[in-house]
Here is the input.
Amino acid sequence: MHMYKQVCYLVYRQAYCVLCHALLRPYDIDTARYCDLYDDPMTLQKSGAMTMSIARPHTMRSIALETNRDKRTVARWLDRASADCADEIGAVIDGCRYFSDDEKAMLLAHMGDKPKAIEPANEPEQSVVSVEVGNHQIVLAQPEMPQTYSLESLRQSDVVAFDDPLAIAAQFLETADVLTAEMQRDIRLREQKLQQTQQAKAAIAEKATEFKLEARLYRERTEMLATAQSQETQGLQQSLTTLQSLGKPQE
Here is the structure.
């Protein structure tokens, strides 16, 4: 039995939440707080407020959206309608004022016409002023202009210039090229002469060293040979002297 009550409670709560969502959602009203009434059995005593909000489905915001006006304009309608009936129109629930269909009609009765935009007044057409030049003029004959002109009178100083500066420049460039080629050729000849001189110097230096060595050897050998020759000659002379001493003088 207890399980049956719980199932019924859940079914009724779901149906109730669907109904609240369908009725209150178009007016930007939070439906969760009404569905939460079934979460606690003690809060079911407040269901009268929910029933009142359903009986009054309109709010100032929903009326403003339907009529394309702002909430201040709807508030002025509320003040006028309350002043006419000398009673408060609508019911305040949780800080929000709700209206029934009849109360909404009372507010709309004070809506009036929507203010029209002020159209600019038609400006008067400006008169068009036309001005004519006229033909009061004296026509002069076409003057004769000379066919030959000279700029000499416009100049105040003489200029010094060559008749053909480009020819002079070409001649200078040609001469400069020839001189440059000759200078480069002379440098090459001098470098070649220097290289030959360096090669000759190196060859002579090597030969001079060898010559000095040979000259020293020659000097030493000739000195030795001269000494030996002198000794041999002296020995020969001694032998001849001995032989001569043995000879008989001639009569």
Summary: DSSP finds seven helices and three strands in the chain. The longest helix spans residues 165-245. The first strand starts at residue 58 and ends at 59. The two ends are 205 Å apart (CA to CA).
